[in-house]
């Protein structure tokens, strides 16, 4: 909700997390992320970069049609008038869209799904931890350790293959 276009390098496909948006006591406030490691750079998949390019063009067209002009410091995701979304309202709208599609998922659930799939695909826990902005990999392991038992079998199988190869040489 606090992502600005200046935080996204569409040419290199990198997004920088520099701030968060807090909703408290009926007010919106931009603030620094929770921890030092929450402030981070994330490499985006090409599909996300292309979707962001299309979104940027659509957003600029919408601003021009409303007579708002270009705003290079603009938020990447805003209401039609260019104001930040209230996080609770955005979450409610997201939930409505997801349910209409026959799914049951929260925004935070997408974060968990992303991390889970990366770990299942063998991405190192340090990399997953950095993408999530965790202070250290032990936090990531504490949340996602239940996903790793199958990986232990994979490690044993790979070790077996390496030993067989070494013994046959």
Task: Give structural attributes.
mainly alpha; hpI Integrase, Chain A; two-stranded antiparallel sheet; 2 domains; 169 residues; 50% helix
Summarize the structure in short.
The protein is built from six helices and five strands.
Descriptive notes:
The chain has 169 residues and is mainly alpha-helical. The protein has 2 domains: 1-103, hpI Integrase, Chain A; 106-169. Helices cover 50% and strands 12% of the residues. It is built from 6 helices and 5 strands, in the order E-E-E-E-E-H-H-H-H-H-H. It has helices at 46-65, 87-100, 107-120, 125-132, 137-144, 149-168, and strands spanning 8-9, 14-17, 20-24, 27-31, 40-43. The protein has a 3-stranded antiparallel sheet, with no helix packed on it. It has a two-stranded antiparallel sheet with strand order 3-4. The model has no long low-confidence stretch (mean pLDDT 87).
For the record, the CATH class of the largest domain is: Mainly Alpha
- Average pLDDT for all residues: 87
Work out the helicity level: 40-55%
Strand order of the largest sheet: 1-2-5
List segments where confidence is low: pLDDT < 50 over at least 5 consecutive residues.
none
At CATH's second level, what is the architecture of the largest domain? Orthogonal Bundle
Structural class: mainly alpha
Tell me, briefly, the overall form.
elongated
H/I helix tally = 6
CATH superfamily of the largest domain: Intergrase catalytic core
Give the N-terminus to C-terminus distance in angstroms.
57 Å
Tally of strands: 5
* Largest sheet descriptor: 3 strands, antiparallel
